[in-house]
Amino acid sequence: MPCLTLRHDQPFSLDATLSCGQVFRWNRMDDSWWYGVVGDRVIRIRQDGNRLTYEGAPASFIVHYFSLDTDLVAILNSIDTDPFIHACIEKNRGLRLVRQPPWECTISYICSTNSNIPTIRRRIASIAEKFGKRIEFRGRVYHTFPEPSSIICEGHSGLTECRLGYRQSYVFGTSSSVTNAKDWANAISRLPYADARKELMTLEGVGPKAADCILLFAFQKYEAFPVDVWIRRIMAEHYLPELSADTPLTNRDYDTIHRFARRHFGNYCGWAQEYLYAGRVR
DNA sequence: GACCAGGAAGAGT
DNA sequence: ACTCTTCATGGT
Prior knowledge:
By secondary structure, the protein is α+β, with helices and mostly antiparallel strands. The protein has helices at about 15-20, 60-65, 70-80, 85-90, 100-110, 115-130, 150, 170-175, 180-190, 195-200, 210-215, 230-240, 250-265, 270-280; strands at about 5, 25-30, 35-40, 40-50, 50-55, 135, 140-145. The chain has 14 helices and seven strands.
């Protein structure tokens, strides 16, 4: 079985990385192996200390997907600007942002609005099962995440059994407008953060928060700082006490939080966001 | 049953 | 440019 030895000066935690809520298609089995579908591959991976054992993809793929080529120590040093974020970093040290496939990530966060994580996971799985390609791996069946043309192949009502609620028409609309996912993703990735964000927000069902998640998790725009109810709560409690945490989040407040985070945590504030989110109390 | 969840769109100001 | 309302589903 292929394996990969991690540098001791570059921390990585597979568990923190896959259970922090940035991905929806990974499962940890009882024997501490993780199984996930990425692109057209099924990957099986586990960590024992500084050793990663895996199958389903070449080493280069693993390194790229988990951002193992990124200098995490330097990033953590740059965002470690106060005692609270310091505690969050210590709690989940080794958490890395992964590089998600952009199209799947986009639909995932369209499906995420006003929902909890188990529900989001079921929706993504349901879309993949219905429209994706079947893959067998170690005697079990998995599915790739479908292209836009596959998602719309049965018309609007084809999505009904995926139980997306009011997000159904967003998924259908966005899948209709993005005809070629690869070209679309290439075009977005060439844009600077602000322009890419505007472009993403032209898609149905993609607002400021979903756009920031997509930019952070799929396009490596690390200056994004997604603000959901948890982050808003944390920021109001620890950094911006003048913000109230229980009225609806306005665009103004969103912007205030983002600007503060960018100034306080720096250009890698997106990584700070993920450490804050991972440290949330449920 | 009430309340909440990695919010966004549309209508009305 | 700001509120306010509504949206469908499932977890707790």
